[in-house]
Automatic annotation (TrEMBL):
Pfam family, one: HTH_30
Domain of life: Bacteria
UniProt source species: Kribbella kalugense
InterPro entries on file: CdaR-like_regulators (IPR051448), PucR_C-HTH_dom (IPR025736), PucR_C-HTH_sf (IPR042070)
Name assigned to this protein: PucR-like helix-turn-helix protein
Domain PucR C-terminal helix-turn-helix: 158-216
Length: 224
């Protein structure tokens, strides 16, 4: 489900007001059980100022960063957390922090045990899918609904081929090598995807829809 709104009432702005001027801000949204009770002190030892406070169901921080600080913050969070954490894109001023919290919470929803810290702007398509799960589910059905009458194995082969093609720069040869089949087999499968979905792999807008639907399908567990 889409994360429920949290009433911030200027609290993030007050946190930011306590931080140095002239820096960009990250908003961090962590599960209450993430074990970040010493995170402000730990960041300060790295010369990265931050301010934190609990909100309903969350532990939220505003981090004042320089251009080279983002990866250092993410690295520390990965080493420290025992729960899931979402991180917003950087913002140049405190007026955007409420939006930052919203995006950090969407990133939090995408975090997993295997990848407990999620930065919103490093997986934007995934974040869009999680921003409204029901809409994302509807898009998956709209794009791939005409595959539903295929046998599950047949459908899965077509979608796996499409996924491999999308991650190999649209190269039938590289996709074939990854899937241990002939390039003509890849082309045949992709042609079937085009026929079934009514979308062309030579049309950038159609490709964007197909790739988004693929990622949303995997993220929402619809491919299992």
């Amino acid at each position: 489900m889409t994360p429920a709104p949290v009433a911030v009432n200027g609290s993030l702005r007050r946190l930011a007001d306590a931080l140095p001027e002239g820096r960009r801000f990250l908003v961090v949204a962590a599960e209450e059980t993430s074990g970040l009770h010493r995170i402000e002190e730990q960041l300060q030892t790295m010369a990265i100022p931050s301010a934190w406070q609990p909100l309903p169901g969350l532990y939220v921080g505003v981090v004042a960063i320089r251009p080279d600080s983002v990866d250092r913050v993410i690295g520390l969070l990965n080493r420290t957390t025992v729960g899931r954490i979402g991180v917003s894109p950087p913002y140049p001023d405190a007026d955007q922090l409420d939006l930052g919290l919203k995006l950090a919470r969407i990133a939090l929803a995408a975090a997993t045990v295997a990848e407990p810290v999620k930065l919103f702007d490093r997986a934007p398509l995934n974040m869009v899918a999680l921003a409204d799960v029901e809409v994302a589910r509807a898009v998956v059905h709209l794009v791939f609904g005409n595959l539903d009458d295929l046998a599950a194995d047949d459908r899965d082969i077509l979608l796996a081929t499409l996924a491999a093609w999308s991650t190999h720069d649209g190269s039938a040869g590289e996709t074939a090598a990854a899937l241990y089949c002939h390039p003509n087999t890849v082309r045949y499968r992709l042609h079937r995807v085009e026929e079934r979905t009514g979308r062309s792999l030579t049309n950038p807008r159609d490709v964007a829809e197909l790739v988004f639907a693929l990622q949303a399908r995997a993220l929402l567990g619809l491919d299992s």
